Each structure stands twice: as C-alpha cells, then as structure tokens.
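Sequence design from tokenized structure. All designs in this work follow the same two-part layout: the structure record, then the generated sequence. An example of the structure record is given first.
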C-alpha cells in the first residue's frame, strides 16, 4: 500500500474525483518519456506535497503513458493517465489521496424480519424507501426483502395500529438479517404526535402530515375537521348542516380556490367536474349542493383513514387538474380488531365500526361502516344532514414471485342534506338534496426488469343525485310563465298561494386511469429517480336533468333557469403525460435534492397545456434550505362550459279582475343561450422559499410563498336590450278574457344576465411558521406553535351593472356600469398548543390558544360612481371622470356602505382536548371549544358583533374488540 490523501468535496452535486487536486500544482516533465501509472504518482509526489495510497496491483492492467517534455497541471496529468470512470479519489486535509476502484455493481440486497414486542411476526407491514419510490410488504412470517443501489438510505416501516418507525440502513452492519420491533401506537408510548407535522415530501413539496393520533385528538368526524390542524386554520364549531370545502393558503374563501384543490383518496382523485345540481344555472346557485366548487369534505369520513397529507406547496407533476394544492387521504391496510367509535356533540352524532381481516394467502381485507346525523341547533330540527358510508379495501398479492401488490377498493356513500318544514313556519321552504355514490378503485404496483417499478391506479365513480326544492309562495298572484322558447303569448295568473317545485336529477360519472414507471440509478455519490406516467380522465353527466313543476311565476328582472337535460351535454376529457427526475446527493453532513418535473395536459380536447415544476433543497447538519416553483391548471367544470339556457320574462300587459275568467297577462320570454367555448382552464403559479432548522433542542420551519391564481371563472353582468311591445284593450266582454292588440309602439327595455368569463384573479403572499421546542422530559410536556400570515388581493376583472334608483312607471331608468375594485384581505393567525402527555396513565391533554392577531378586508380603488351607463334605449354612454360625481348622475350612485372596510381587533380563543386510553386500547376523549366561554365583541356599522362562537363540547368513545 502506498500513501493516500482524501478530501470530501462538499459542493452541490460535485463528484469526488481527480479534480480535487489543486489546479495550481504544476509538474515539470524534463524529457520525453514513457512511464507506468505508479511512476506518474512518484513524479507528482516528488514535486508537490501530495501523497497517494492505493493497492499495489490496482493499475497493473493499465497501459503505459507517453509524456512529452514540458509543464502540465497535476490534475490534467492524472486525468491523462487514469480513467476516472473506474476509480474514486478522496482527499484529506493533509493532502493525502486515497484511490479506490469503483465496484462494477453497487446494488445491495436487504433482508429482514419485523415483529411485535412479543416477538410475534407481523404480516402486511409496509416497508418504504421514500427516496427511491420503492416499497414492499412483509409476508406471513414478517419477512421482507428489497434490492437497493447502496445502503445510504432510510426505510420507513408502518402498519395499522403500530407506531411508524424510520430505520437508517447505514447503521446496520449485516443487511441480510435486519430485525425491527414495532410497538402499538397507543398513549403508553413515550412519543405521541397529536399535531400536524411539517415535512418536505419526496417530490420536494411543502406538506403537512397528520397521523392517526392527531386525528383522534381533534375527534374529527370528517376531513374538514382534520384541516383545522394546518397553520392559519381555526377549530370550528362542529356543524354538518353546512357545506365544507377546503381553503388552502388564502385569506379569502372562494369557489375558485376550493375548486382547484384536489382531494385524492388512495391514489384516486375525487372529481366534481360533472356536478350539474344548480337551482339556477345562470348564477351557479347550487343550494345545498357544491356546484363549480371543491369536494364537499363532509363526504370523506375517517373510520378507516390512517393519515392525511396536505400538499400546500408545489405538487408533483403526477398530480394534475388542480390549482391550489392537494389533500392525500391514505386508508388503513392490515389486520386489526373491531374498532367501534362514536362521536357525540349537541347537534352531531356519529358512529363507525372498522375491522381488518387477515385472509392468509388471500391477503388482507379492511372494512369500515359509518353513520352520521346532524341538526342545525340543539333546539331546532329544521336543518338536517345524515350520511352513510361503507368501505372495503382488499390487498391481494397477485403473483408473489413478481412482488405484485394489488388493491381493490369499493366504497358506497349516501348523504341526505336539507330543510324541513316546521309547523310554525308561514313560508314553506323545503329542500332535500340526496346523493349516493359508488366508487371502485383498482391499484397496485409490481416490478419489471425493463421499466422498473410499475404503479397503476384505475377508478370509476358514479353518483346518483336528486335535489328537491318545494317552496310555498303566499304573496301571489303572479303571471304564470312556462314557455321554454322565446316569444310573446297570453297567460293567466297563479293563485294567491301555491307550491313551486324544482326537481334536479343528476348522474355524474368519472373514470380515471393512471400508470407510471419508476426507475432508479446511482452514479458515484448521486442517486437518480426517474418517474414517467400517463393519465386519462373522463367526466360526464347522464342524469335526467332539471325539471320545474307547479306554477312557474314571473321572476321580475332575474334571469332564471327551467328544464334542462344533462345527458346531451358533452363530456369533459383530459389526457396527460408527465415526467419527473429527482437527483439526490448525500454526504456525511449534507444532502441535496433537485426535482425537475414537467406535465402535459390535453384538456377538453382543445387545450394543450404544459406545467413545469421544480424544487431544490440543501441540508447541512441541522439546517435545510429549500426553494420551489410550479405551474398548474384546473379545467372548467361542465356546468361552467354548458350552463344551459337562461330565461328572461317580462310583462307587456296585465289585467287582474275579480272574476278569474276575465284575468289576462301578456308576457314575453327571451331565451338566452350562453356559449362558453371561450372559457380557459384556471392558471396557477406558485413560488416558495423557506428553511428548516432542527437542532437538538427544537424544530423550526419557515416558509414564504407567493401564489397567483389567474383566469378563475366568475360571473359577469351583461346587458341585453329587449323589445317590449305596448298592448291596448280592443274589447272586454263580461266573463271572458279581454281582447288585446299591440299598438305598434315598442319600447326597448334593458335586462342583465350573468355570463361566465375568466375574470377572477387572486394573488396571495404568505408566511407559514411552525415551532416545536424540545419536550420537557421531567414532566413530558411539549409546546407547539404554528402561525400563518396571509395577504390576498382579489378582483373580478369584469364589471358590474346596476339599475338606477327610479320611480315605478318612470321611463328614465338607466343602468350604471361600475368598475370592480380590488379587495385586499389580511389574515394573521397563530395557534399555541400545550401538549401534556402522561404515558404511565395513557393520558394526553392539549390546550390550544388561538391567537387572532388581525383579520381585515378593505376595498382598493373603489368608486361609488359608474364610468358609463346604458340609457332606456340601450345606448352605451361614457361618463367623463370629472362629471361622475355630478348631481345629474345621483340616481346611479351606489349606497355609501357599498365598500366598507372590516377589521377585527386582536382576540383569543381557547380549546381543550382530553383523551385517555385503557390498557386494552379503549379510548375516551372530550373536547371543549371556547372552553372559557369567552365572547368578546366589537362594533361594526353601529352594531355589536361577537368574535367567538359559544362554547361547544363533544365526547368520543372508541372500543377495541379483539
């Protein structure tokens, strides 16, 4: 052995090679000579302070090197003599270089067994190498095996009911006999995580992982309750009678934001693109149904959910048709006892049972069944909501030799949301919105010698929807207007009181398929992961459509919708392809990762869209810096593209006599058929930068982001000029309708309709901070602080049209045209949580102080005066800037309170959560939101408003029946 020298080159993605030798070291060749590699080392050592260590026979097969007289750099000389492709060089501080021959194959095979604390083998344990997107399951003997490029990885071991373990392979001497013991995930363990954990996903995205213990601690009834653990989100009073939609990283709540949030259950995206259940399609009013918005989170129950991961940052290119992040819901897999759980509050009741069956050679079957019921308030039963959910998930090893894992999932969900008629109510307003969904998902993975790991997910979803609205109207009579075509006709009047019924029957269908291949490669100290995939989605609605029955009455100046057939509406289709390359470099004290992703979407058979996404992170000891940028798109919903006809009704002549046979009204119906082929997909651009610092005494995360949402779909007013003929009575016989005829005089009347455009724009600058100091070991007490600052600027780039103030019968009515102002919303909110865990008592208490620092909304550039108006003849007339405030246009001035700034003072709210487990694993918990019953108030427009909800309490009992 000769002398060596080694230095680890720590620059990002650099190679430890011959280049480590200083480029200033010059070697003088005194004469032309032919030498061996060993003699070259002697020449360099004689003229520099470098020394070399290597095996004496390492270069025996290399040919001699011919050198010319002159001067040459030392590193160039070595490059000339040694093919660095086959050798590695490591440099030490004393200028000693160690040379080793690179192995022809660096792959290593790991084998191991996973057992419980009683040394019993555990089957169906999920063993994952997240860095390589590889994974496997243990067999009935608890055994697993994997082939990796090298040993510098961590594996994550997880199983239903057990605490997840991260195992560092670098600490293991014998990779062929790894033994890992899993402990049951109970409160008797020293470490219990009951908050959302900020992490960086494999794809480099900012994510928050919420485990089963955190879900139990908040007594979550559905997915909406889980999201309260994110920075900036409050723990809301539990109420299932209102729709729940996600709102990620925005100071304002909007359908555009929630519509762009993807909810992905076990790899299958839940689509709302084909939902057409709108009472009035011209305004997208869905009543109790989410139309043109996001997934109703009440439909995602948690009876069989193991964890929830919220992608708040740039999503992987494998996730498409989104513009505001994603929520990944992972179901439980594995054998388990019967888990019977019930949640009770003053207005909500929920019960569920789940079980994991071990089927030996036929895999494992997980089942869950849940039921929920809610009423509007403890003293009123008008509002109601109930849901029933059944889930089956079967993991079947198809061909053991191929390491093929296959999952078959089947879910049935039924919900009933509505208003009852109370006997004391004068006005009847009943609603009953039913929805029954059936979802089948086939997913899994297997290994291929050519393509690497193949992942697939195919899902089909059918929803039977029925929205029923029954309104009892007592302020009649009105002219009856039932025409489905444009024209003028004679009609009569409705009774003074009558029922008006609207039936909407929809049947959205979604088919989604995704397949991708993942390969891994290693080169020197770099690890590469390549993932390429294809995806196809199909959305259609084959429902009967919208039917209005009973007396259809005059709708004044509002454009209404009547009957529509959904099955004639074209389906929505998207074909996608994506690729992602992940490059990782791991050193002794540092780690770098570069993600480069690209997604192509062919949306709606006419849009070719490209979404670049990339991220970079660098970790050195306890400090990690990260930066990310990405573009994404969300396709318009079917109802936005094809909302159906709008009906504008107006009265030309009316005669209401005491004798019903003599009553007559002449009405005109104008049918407006919008063409929304101009709508483009929503565009989102997200940039973020941040750092994580994790010394031994704390964990600190900081992220700044800027999210721009452009081309969001919103409704804008459009003015129509419609001819209104004047009629006169020709004759009026007794007992009959009068005979009328047009006078020849025609007046033009303006009417507004709602049209859809890509006018919505939202820009959000935000900060997110999480801080977790080290646990106080003496008392097992821990603190957690999460904070969010959001500043959103929102506008509708269209314009607003309002009718002037006028006296009935005055023909001088006109319509003002107003600019939509910018709205700046600020939300500064933090949550400080005390976590008191007593493992010996199997007890955990969390006390959360919600700190509402600032919540405000103000208008920017708002004006009470129009910039133009339409006169009674429909002529468009500009108003000069200097004349807009003149008395001449006082009838067009908006109300003084139209643009009011709102701002709440600082206030706090305290929430208490207590949970106790028995030795058998039974759990008993209690929560009290606004525990001190503190209700501060502030003044707004002369009235007092409360800042906190009333105190609300809830109980949970969970039993494990083995």
């Amino acid at each position: 052995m000769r002398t060596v020298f080694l230095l680890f080159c720590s620059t990002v993605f650099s190679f430890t090679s011959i280049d480590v030798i200083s480029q200033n070291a010059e070697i003088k060749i005194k004469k032309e000579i032919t030498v061996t590699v060993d003699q070259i080392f002697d020449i360099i050592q004689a003229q520099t302070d470098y020394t070399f260590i290597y095996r004496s026979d390492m270069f025996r097969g290399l040919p001699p090197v011919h050198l010319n007289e002159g001067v040459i750099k030392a590193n160039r000389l070595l490059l000339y003599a040694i093919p660095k492709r086959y050798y590695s060089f490591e440099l030490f501080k004393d200028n000693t270089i160690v040379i080793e021959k690179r192995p022809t194959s660096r792959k290593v095979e790991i084998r191991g067994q996973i057992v419980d604390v009683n040394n019993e083998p555990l089957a169906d344990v999920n063993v994952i190498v997240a860095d390589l997107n590889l994974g496997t399951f243990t067999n009935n003997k608890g055994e697993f095996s994997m082939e990796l490029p090298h040993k510098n990885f961590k594996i994550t071991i997880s199983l239903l009911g057990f605490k997840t373990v991260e195992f560092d392979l670098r600490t293991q001497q014998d990779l062929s006999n790894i033994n890992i013991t899993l402990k049951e995930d109970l409160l008797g363990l020293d470490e219990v995580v009951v908050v959302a954990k900020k992490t960086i996903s494999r794809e480099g995205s900012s994510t928050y992982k919420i485990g089963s213990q955190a879900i139990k601690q908040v007594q979550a009834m559905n997915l909406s309750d889980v999201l309260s653990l994110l920075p900036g989100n409050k723990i809301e009073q539990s109420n299932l009678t209102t729709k729940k939609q996600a709102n990620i990283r925005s100071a304002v709540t909007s359908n555009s934001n929630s519509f762009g949030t993807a909810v992905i259950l076990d790899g299958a995206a839940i689509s709302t693109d084909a939902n057409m259940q709108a009472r009035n399609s011209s305004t997208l009013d869905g009543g109790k149904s989410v139309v043109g918005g996001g997934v109703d989170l009440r439909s995602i129950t948690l009876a069989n959910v193991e964890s929830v991961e919220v992608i708040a940052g740039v999503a992987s290119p494998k996730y498409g048709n989104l513009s505001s992040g994603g929520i990944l819901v992972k179901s439980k897999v594995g054998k388990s006892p019967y888990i019977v759980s019930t949640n009770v509050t003053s207005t909500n009741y929920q019960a569920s049972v789940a079980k994991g069956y071990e089927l030996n050679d036929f895999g494992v079957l997980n089942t869950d069944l849940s039921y929920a019921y809610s009423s509007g308030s403890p003293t009123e039963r008008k509002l109601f909501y109930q849901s029933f959910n059944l889930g089956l998930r079967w993991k079947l090893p198809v061909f053991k030799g191929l390491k093929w894992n296959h999952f078959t999932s089947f879910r049935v969900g039924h919900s009933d949301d509505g208003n009852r008629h109370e006997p004391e109510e004068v006005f009847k307003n009943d609603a009953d919105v039913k929805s029954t969904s059936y979802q089948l998902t086939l997913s899994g993975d297997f290994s291929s010698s050519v393509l690497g790991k193949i992942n697939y997910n195919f899902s089909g979803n059918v929803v039977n929807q029925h929205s029923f609205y029954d309104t009892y109207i007592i302020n009649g009579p009105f002219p009856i207007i039932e025409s489905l075509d444009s024209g003028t006709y004679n009609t009569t009047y409705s009774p003074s009181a009558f029922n008006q019924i609207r039936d909407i029957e929809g049947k959205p269908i979604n088919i989604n398929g995704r397949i991708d291949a993942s390969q891994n490669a290693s080169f020197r100290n770099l690890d590469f992961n390549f993932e390429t995939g294809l995806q196809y989605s199909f959305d259609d609605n084959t429902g009967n459509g919208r039917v209005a029955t009973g007396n259809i009455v005059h709708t004044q100046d509002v454009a209404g919708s009547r009957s529509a057939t959904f099955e004639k509406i074209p389906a929505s289709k998207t074909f996608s392809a994506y690729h992602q390359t992940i490059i990782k470099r791991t050193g002794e004290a540092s780690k770098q990762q570069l993600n480069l992703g690209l997604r192509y979407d062919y949306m709606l058979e006419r849009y070719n869209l490209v979404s670049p996404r990339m991220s970079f992170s660098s970790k050195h000891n306890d400090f990690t810096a990260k930066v990310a940028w990405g573009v994404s798109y969300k396709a318009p919903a079917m109802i936005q593209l094809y909302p159906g006809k709008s009906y504008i009704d107006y009265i030309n002549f009316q005669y209401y006599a005491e004798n019903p046979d003599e009553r007559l009204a002449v009405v005109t119906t104008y049918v407006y058929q919008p063409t929304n082929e101009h709508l483009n997909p929503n565009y989102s651009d997200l940039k973020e930068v941040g750092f994580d610092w994790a010394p031994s005494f704390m964990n600190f995360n900081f992220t700044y982001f800027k999210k721009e949402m452009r081309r969001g779909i919103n409704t804008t007013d459009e003015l129509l000029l419609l001819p209104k003929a004047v009629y006169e009575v020709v004759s009026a016989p007794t007992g009959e309708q009068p005979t009328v005829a047009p006078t020849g005089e025609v007046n033009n009347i303006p009417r507004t309709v709602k049209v859809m455009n890509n006018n919505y724009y939202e820009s959000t600058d935000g900060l997110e901070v999480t801080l977790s100091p080290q646990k106080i070991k003496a008392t097992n007490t821990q603190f957690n602080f999460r904070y969010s600052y959001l500043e959103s600027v929102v506008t509708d780039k269209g314009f607003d049209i309002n009718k002037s103030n006028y006296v009935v019968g005055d023909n001088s009515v006109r319509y003002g045209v107003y600019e939509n102002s910018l709205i700046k919303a600020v939300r500064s909110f933090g949550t400080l949580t005390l976590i008191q865990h007593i493992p010996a008592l199997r007890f955990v208490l969390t006390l959360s102080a919600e700190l509402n620092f600032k919540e405000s909304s103000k208008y920017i550039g708002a004006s009470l005066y129009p910039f133009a108006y339409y006169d009674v003849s429909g002529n468009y007339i500009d108003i000069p800037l200097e004349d807009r405030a003149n008395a001449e246009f006082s009838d067009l001035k908006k109300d003084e309170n139209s643009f009011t700034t709102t701002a709440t003072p600082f206030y706090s709210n305290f929430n208490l959560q207590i949970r106790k487990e028995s030795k058998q694993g039974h759990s008993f918990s209690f929560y009290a939101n606004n525990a001190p019953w503190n209700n501060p108030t502030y003044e707004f427009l002369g009235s007092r408003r409360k800042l906190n909800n009333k105190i609300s309490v809830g109980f949970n009992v969970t039993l494990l029946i083995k």
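The two ends are 64 Å apart (CA to CA). We note this feature because it recurs in several other targets discussed in the main text.
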